[in-house]
Design brief:
The protein has 491 residues and is an alpha+beta fold. The protein binds adenosine-5'-triphosphate.
């Protein structure tokens, strides 16, 4: 498994992710997506939106504002309860989430070995003296303060006057924008239950311990769905909410597998009773085997009718659905699949990373799913001194770039250029050589063909320039290299 340090360094070197405000010393809690990172992120979001919003007849989309009425956060429970317990070390001043101490490795100066320093795995006791952690896990010396509750919402003011009445918050999740628009969508789109609303957008949490690269940051993006079901209905003999909860768990897992995540690196974690939010009937997290260990990639919760009832109570507006069949008003139950875009990107990146040996040399390759790869195609001239080759390569890139992310690169020799594209996961390189354009000095005619090189097998085929767009389109659309090679060979 690739280490986080390797990923962070690759991301910086190749323009995926930079530390925010780096020239000022940076912040450890925010990151900027560079030229390749933004392409990857956009492709993840586009695939999610297409698969979960556009393709499904039971889904619609929404883009709600980040700043909302302050009552939203009172009704949702965030003002009173969206807090984590925080403890501080009295010596080194390091700050921890009290509920994560058991998951943190701890430094121990062991009295049984003349005070030798050990770093002990999370939750384990010292094998020499048998002691468990009581002091600061980081410095191993300081006492920890008792836990204090710390609200994670970023507070701000609407308008020029900083007074209590104008206090509002940056949204800590996109979900509430969906709940408060439930009736707008229901009425304007004439929906019948079950249906869902999907949304992608920024969320902000003043995390106590941000870190692990883009895994936990203070500004991040979410892809959330609120799927409304009629709790009085049954599907296949089961309550509709339970049935749909299972369906969304399956669909979510299938989605990550569909875009190349290895099944062994995904698992489901069911919340125990003491882990469940008070309003949730059941919650299951999809966990990924990140370089930091198994951790939450997304959560899929059955939030019952809690949110709609709370907003109805605080706003005084009925947020119900009229069930024509039973002639009754019901408050729908809601299933919430909620994924982090940044965590998904980190998972796709870690999963794609490979170090291989090719003819005695190390090759780093990101085996991204072709639809997610930041660059779909790189067009490379074999000789940059030949004007006609360079011109043809530029023209091919320009043509492909009408529909794809395609780049031109002539800054090194071809072998080097291939390696560079492998390292950023470009599935196909197209090479223009002397045969493509011909050589009048030697009396060799142009054959108009270009070479396509496959990232994973490193195999190459030559195709007519006029068919290139079609062949690349087939490959990116899911056709296998073997199928395409066979078809090109037949033509
Ligand atoms: P955690 O337990 O890791 O703090 P959570 O259970 O509070 O996460 P949710 O409120 O369920 O997270 O948010 C849904 C998803 O949003 C998470 O599964 C994760 O992918 C993403 N997410 C939440 N907080 C952050 C963060 N600080 N940075 C990046 N992504 C986040």
């Amino acid at each position: 498994m690739v280490t986080m340090d390797t990923l962070v360094s690759l991301c910086k070197r190749r323009g995926f992710v930079f530390q925010s405000s780096e020239i000022y010393g940076g912040t450890g809690s925010c990151w900027d997506y560079g030229p390749l990172g933004v392409e990857l992120k956009n492709k993840i979001k586009r695939a999610w939106w297409r698969d979960f919003v556009q393709r499904r007849p039971d889904m619609v989309g929404l883009d709600a504002s980040i700043l909302m009425h302050s009552m939203v956060w009172k009704a949702s429970g965030h003002v009173d309860h969206f807090a984590d317990p925080m403890v501080d070390c009295r010596e080194c001043r390091h700050r921890f989430r009290a509920d994560q101490l058991a998951e943190t490795p701890w430094v121990h100066y062991c009295p049984a070995t003349k005070g030798n320093k050990f770093t002990i795995p999370p939750g384990e006791a010292c094998t020499h003296c048998g002691a468990s952690r009581t002091l600061c896990p980081d410095c191993g010396k300081g006492e920890l303060t008792p836990p204090r509750q710390f609200n994670l919402m970023f507070k701000t003011f609407m308008g020029p006057v900083e007074e209590d009445a104008s206090v509002t918050y940056l949204r800590p999740e996109t979900a509430q924008g969906i709940f408060v628009n439930f009736d707008n969508v229901l009425q304007s789109m004439r929906r019948k239950l079950p249906f869902g609303i999907g949304q992608i957008g920024k969320a902000f949490r003043n995390e106590i311990t941000p870190g692990n690269f883009i895994f936990r940051t203070r500004e991040f993006e979410q892809m959330e769905i609120e799927y409304f079901v009629n709790p009085h209905e049954t599907v296949e003999g089961r309550p509709a909410d339970e049935y749909w909860h299972d369906r969304w768990i399956e669909d979510s897992l299938a989605w990550f597998r569909r875009y190349g995540i290895q099944p062994d690196n995904l698992r489901l974690h069911e919340h125990d009773r003491d882990e469940l939010a008070h309003y949730a009937k059941r919650t299951a997290d999809v966990q990924y085997r990140f370089p930091i260990g198994w951790s939450e990639l997304m959560g899929i919760a059955n939030r019952t009718d809690f949110d709609l009832k709370q907003h109805a109570k605080f706003s005084g507006k009925a947020l119900t659905y009229f069930d024509e069949e039973r002639k009754e008003h019901v408050v729908p139950y809601v299933i919430e699949p909620s994924a982090g875009v940044d965590r998904a990107l980190l998972a796709f990146l870690a999963d794609a990373y490979r170090e291989e040996e090719v003819r005695g040399e190390k090759r780093v390759v990101l085996r991204f799913h072709p639809e997610l790869a930041p660059l779909s195609v790189a067009v490379l001239p074999l000789l940059k001194k030949r004007d006609d080759i360079v011109r043809t390569a530029h023209a091919i890139r320009d043509d492909l770039a009408r529909h794809l992310t395609a780049v031109y690169d002539d800054t090194a020799a071809i072998g080097r250029l291939y390696r560079r594209q492998d390292e950023v996961g470009t599935p196909y390189c197209v090479t223009v050589d002397v045969q493509t354009v011909g050589d009048t000095d030697k009396g060799e005619a142009a054959d108009g063909k270009v070479t396509i090189r496959d990232r994973d097998s490193m195999e190459q085929i030559r195709v007519e320039g006029s068919r290139l767009g079609q062949v690349i389109g087939d490959l990116l659309g899911g056709a296998s290299w073997a199928e395409v090679t066979a078809a090109v060979g037949r033509s």
